[in-house]
Amino acid sequence: MSYKFWFMVGSQHLYGAEVLKEVAEHGNIMAKGLNSDEIIPFEVVFKGVATTPEEIKKVCVEANGDSECAGVISWMHTFSPSKMWIGGLSILNKPYLHLNTQFNRNIPFDTIDMNFMNTNQSAHGDREHGFITARLRMKRKVICGYWEDKAFRRRIGGWMRSAAGALFSRSLKVMRLGDNMRYVAVTEGDKIQAEKDFGWSVNTYGVGGFAELVNNASDAETNEKIEEYRSRYAFNTNNIEAVRYQAKLETALEQMLTEGGFDAYTDTFEDLYGLMQLPGLATQNLMSKGYGFGAEGDWKTAALAAVMRAMSQGLDNGLSFIEDYTYHFELGNEAVLGAHMLEISPAIAADRPRIEVHPLGIGGKADPARLVFEGKKGDALLTTIVDMGGRFRLISHDIHAIAPLKKMPNLPVASVMWRPEPDMITGNEAWILCGGTHHSVISYDLTAEHMRDFAEIMGIEFIHINKNTTIPELRDKLALSDIIWRG
Ligand code: MN
Predict the structure, then answer these.
(1) Could you tell me the distance, in angstroms and rounded to a whole number, from the CA of residue 333 to the centre of ligand 1?
(2) In CATH, what number is assigned to the domain containing residue 27?
(3) Is the same domain home to 149 and 23?
(4) Is the entire prediction scored with pTM above 0.85?
(5) C-alpha span between 238 and 72 (Å, rounded)
(6) pLDDT, tens only, 165-176
(7) Same-domain check for residues 178 and 158
(8) pLDDT surpasses 70 at 363
(9) Are 208 and 352 contained in the same domain?
(10) Which of 156, 174, 305, 418 is buried deepest, with most CB atoms within 10 A?
(11) How many angstroms separate the alpha carbon of residue 81 from the centre of ligand 1?
(12) What is the pLDDT of residue 217?
């Protein structure tokens, strides 16, 4: 989807037409500079120099009504008296980024005079703007730096991803096939609160209707999927019929998702009415195409995966649904094995995934075809969302994915092994103290800053477990959170 970010440069009429012309030129050059840098993922649209309360309010009203506008970026080139901004900012409902930068990198020591000072006042103009946004209690991001610097642009690009995720989230539809797994607590949640806080429309559809579509999938559609599987994956099975059944499942799922405008879905092994296999390969292939998925009816993780995928537009290091599967407690070599019984996206595979057919052990259906692979190595982020009753908590955890400590020839699932920050013991304790799920989304592209900005835009609590996390501090933070974020 194409998201746009509106860029307003603040000034006033006090300095005369010549100065305003120069300010507009600088704003234009800056917008062009940002747009020509691939680190900026979405288009910056320069909306001119704002000099009166009426102009500012007009841009804010238009931004609110523009379906492609994912956020507003401002910068005060000169001093822009901030009472002019109250009317517009009070009604703005798009994410807001305030840049503190300057057109010139260095002070022109030999030539600097009072004219230069009048034109280049962001050092104090942005402070005036910072006050009014603080005074209005605005949710906002502030980024300081020189506009041509990579580090500065990378942070702007990062915030844009969070804001784009927020806009995507506001129109996300999630399809549920069956309820969540019986008696499970953490996959429960308030779907009305979720629609209010995130915009997620979560609704259920009959598994029987889905089964009918599966049975009606044509040979031509099935053959087409098999060809696709052959081009992407290695066949490590003679049970082609089982693979063909997954092709039919994927065809039917794709049809329902497309027709309903869904970007995420769930199913559950406890409700497979009329189906021969639990979707495995079918769901794995769909996840790699961008659909969010949550197993056992976990609609929160399904929706979160779709949002994080939207935030990752143009990045391709991979993202998947994952589950904390089992621990390795060898002293000094502790690690977590993440996997699921089937549904891990091949987007995070280190090598070409293999299609295999094995018994599932639960669900009482035929052996499902699935992709088997080892996950990529590298820094990654685990993120989950829990319903605390009247409010949601978003939790992100820094981890390092590693090569499996040893081969696991008898475990026929896709898996990733990782070491959590700050160490496995503290990291696991922290996650469990937060109430974090066994399900989460693993991303090799997004960082905690992306998720923190997303949480702020959506108005929900955010916890980041990282190399500096200590349990006593976390416990204090969680106790405070219950006061700050009471539902
Ligand atoms: Mn699970």
Answers:
(1) 25
(2) 3.40.50.10940
(3) yes
(4) yes
(5) 55
(6) 999 999 999 999
(7) no
(8) yes
(9) yes
(10) 305
(11) 54
(12) 97
